[in-house]
Amino acid sequence: MPAPEAAPAPAAPPPADLVNVQIDGVWLKFPKGTRMIEACKQAKKEVPHYCYHPKLSSPGNCRMCLVEMGMPPRPAPGQEPEKDEHGMPKIGWMPRPVIACANTVAEGMGIRTESTLTQEVRKGVMEFLLINHPLDCPICDQAGECRLQEFSVEHGKGESRFREEKVKKPKNVDIGPRVRLDDERCIMCSRCIRFTAEIADAPVLGFTERGSYTTLAVHPGKRLEHNYSLNTVDICPVGALTSNDFRFQQRVWFLTETNSICQGCGRGCNMETHARGDTIYRQTPRENNDVNSNWMCDRGRLDFHFVNSEFRLTDPMVKNQGKHEVTSWKKAIQAVANAAVGVKGEEIAIIASARMTNEELFFVKQLAKILGTENVDVIPRLGEGDNYLSAADKNPNSNGAKLILGSEPGSKLAGITELMSRGRLRVVLALGENLLKCGFERRDLEKIPSLVTLHILANASAELSQIVLPGNAYAEKRGSMINVTGRLQRMDRAVNAPGNARDTWEILRDLVVACGGSNGLHSIEDVFSRLAAEVPAFQGLSFAKIGDLGVPVLETDEKIPLLEREKERKAKGIIVG
């Protein structure tokens, strides 16, 4: 038996009070108070579970996490405790298993996760869970990522001794605008109930009846309709709760997962984009305890359908005799350069977007410098935040725009609008914004001799433009952004842009070159390296060093309400966190 060794370090600095715990014959050290299931996880020993979730309280419902436990016997008066060959106390094993999710480790404790007793009780739990469970895996949306499927293979008996009629329960129940319930699949883990009560502060779910007839239900007169309802689908270990938006759309094993960040507001929640081919089917939260924990709002996760829109711009176009005609990229870029080069800087305006990446904004700045204009700004978007994750700033990269362009978003728009209304602007570049939806008047846009739109969708402003350039959507690009708390994060490409649409940063780079600027930047990594050399906040960083969880680069006063409450609950020992 090996001598005691330190377990892998937990996420937070461990307290000084460590205890010795034997897990499957190996002695390790853990902070006092660590839950048994987390100690096993750190020791790389899997303990199957359904009801346990580190961000929720532990009710011990499912009993799937039963393990064999032992403690050193109390010695008789005057006797020394018996030691093993390594000087550690010998363990007396209890004849009854205990749940690992709600019990904590103690000095000298022993845990067995693979003993005969443990394996037998898991088989028993699985047999009871499957007694009334419908065999509808072929049509269940959870197939492929179902914990019940996985654990039935690993810990089940492989056959059922139950010969009676299964209990029938409600199916396809409409419990909210975005979630449906199949009660026959529910294993009563209560994760959804605890999430709505503890995280979303909307306790609308609960159990009714008893025993085999227990049913998950919405409280009378209530519906599961808050902005975080789809998180219940994520944490449901079976197919009891399914998303109306994703239901029957695609099998999960056909989907490719790509790490990205949400564009719905300035929070920049970490997420995974699930796509097949060049079509996005869903977005789900990705754990980042410095940004969004394990959660994500419904509005943000469902904001992807425009990427698959039939109104996507797919080819560059130039207006000829009042009608747009498809042209080549070379001719379209040159047409923009011909319209802008030689025009006085005060007669040119660039209206960019705080939805653009840092790399794209870098070229916006370069383009403005080449054209000699200071009429450069982004459209601010302020709304209402909530007491959870949604930020009041509805742009995902306002801090990046402020840092790179050197001005407060929206500070120059009044001046640009005035120049436009007086007919003083000869060239206006609208980059990533539909100006008619941003407060600009149609009559003012019609006064501009050369209006250029770079966008992903056909819109009213593009219709008025002399030149239209199709860019790429957030899911089709690589780049970085800075969220409202000052954290630099990156996104990766999940799907390809349609038709002849190109990467926005490449379009802007070519515009800079066509207007007389220098080249030499051929990848996002190259662009970020240039940014890191010019922007002090990025000094010492590379695109790769941003990592999947991002790095803080700015100090802001912004707090994340959900994470603040999570810290309080963790400090009280209610959750593991």
From TrEMBL:
Domain of life the protein comes from:
Bacteria
Instruction: Please give the SUPFAM superfamilies that the UniProt record associates with this protein.
Output: 2Fe-2S ferredoxin-like, 4Fe-4S ferredoxins, Formate dehydrogenase/DMSO reductase, domains 1-3
| Gene3D superfamilies to which the protein is assigned, alphabetical | 3.10.20.740, 3.30.70.20, 3.40.50.740, ADC-like domains
Tell me where in this chain the 4Fe-4S His(Cys)3-ligated-type domain is found.
Answer: 117-156
Q: Which Pfam families match?
A: Fer2_4, Fer4_Nqo3, Molybdop_Fe4S4, Molybdopterin, NADH-G_4Fe-4S_3
A Gene Ontology molecular-function term?
A: 2 iron, 2 sulfur cluster binding
- What are the subcellular locations of this protein? Membrane
Limits of the 4Fe-4S Mo/W bis-MGD-type domain: 255-311
GO BP terms: namely: ATP synthesis coupled electron transport
Q: Record keywords: NAD included?
A: yes
Keywords attached to this Swiss-Prot or TrEMBL record, sorted alphabetically, are: 2Fe-2S, 4Fe-4S, Iron, Iron-sulfur, Membrane, Metal-binding, NAD, Translocase
Task: Please list the cofactors this protein needs.
Answer: [4Fe-4S] cluster; [2Fe-2S] cluster
The cellular component terms of Gene Ontology attached to this UniProt record, alphabetical and capped at eight, are:
membrane
Family membership: Belongs to the complex I 75 kDa subunit family.
Q: What is this protein called?
A: NADH-quinone oxidoreductase subunit L
